[in-house]
Amino acid sequence: MYVKDTVYHLATTSAHYKRARQFLSNHDAVFERLTFPTITAERDDEIIGVLSTQHHDSAIIAGPLVVDIGDGNPSFVVIRLWQAYERVLHEAGVTEYLFAVPEGESAWNEAVNQMEVDVWKHHKGAIWYRKGVEWDLK
What we know:
The protein contains three helices and seven strands, in the order βαβββαβαββ. By secondary structure, the protein is of the alpha+beta class. The protein has a single domain, classed as Aminopeptidase, CATH 3.40.630.30. The strands form two sheets. It has a four-stranded antiparallel β-sheet, sandwiched between helices. A three-stranded antiparallel β-sheet has the order 5-7-6, with no helix packed on it. The protein is globular and about 40 Å long. The chain starts with 6 loop residues before the first strand and ends in a 6-residue tail after the last strand.
């Protein structure tokens, strides 16, 4: 399978959310409830990645993010999930959101630092970031 064979979907039905929850549960992701937007990456009708939104009354909190493409490099799928997620947020009029990375996850922390986002705070072993929604149609 190749990156070009990956299709990205916005979850819109209870069946689609159920598939996303099952994928995340199979990968031991921690979440209470998935909310809008939830984006899935699929190859041959199998989910290989999910980026969702945690339920919160006063903020948009991105996550969990899980990608499983086997032995390959997940970078392209992660980038495309994030782009699709931000596109939906932009279309919904959202201007910023939060996400967290566990402090011990050096690879994730390094990747986030390259995104030029601001640290919002350190809380319960995680680094919380505030990111503006950027969408340029050039």
